[in-house]
Prior knowledge:
The protein is mainly α. The chain is 66% helix and 0% strand. The protein has a single domain, classed as Rhomboid-like fold, CATH 1.20.1540. The protein contains seven helices and no strands. Helix 1 runs antiparallel to helix 3 (42-59).
Amino acid sequence: MIKYLFVFVFIFVFAWFDKSLGYTTTSPVYTHFTYMFQHAGIIHLIINSLAFIGMFRAVEKYINKWILSGICIFFAFLLSFFSSYDIPTVGASSMIYIMIGMFLSITLFYKKVKINDKRKYLLFITSIFLSLLVSAFKHNSNFLLHVLSISSGIIIGLIFLIKKSFIAKTKYVKTLPN
């Protein structure tokens, strides 16, 4: 349900506010928070909304939805300070790439997760690589933010895996939570 609340906020902000919610090297600090809810156009809004819902669904199987939401917002905010440009940055891509990174680390390194269709999984990884490649050459895309986000997501996912394996080894917990 929370993933749909995010999309509702995306749509509301897109309809009622302009791109001044995006951040640049000279914008106010609050724009480093608001940028992730604004989008550059209707296609951008639709693609990010679908990607957000899909990745949120995939990752919430392993991480509590409230913790996942907090991680996405906090790290998207934090990473924006390391990737400021003169062109305003808007969109939920940072949160999406954080979830992609978490999903990759969980699916690649968590022994209890089995990939049923390796072709589809390889296609997924290839499409992520291609989207990063496109954002590297697109002048109005914040490639650095995308790379920082997916890298941070991978690290966050690994931290969660370490935490789960530590919990599983204690004598007080018999099974891992879903």
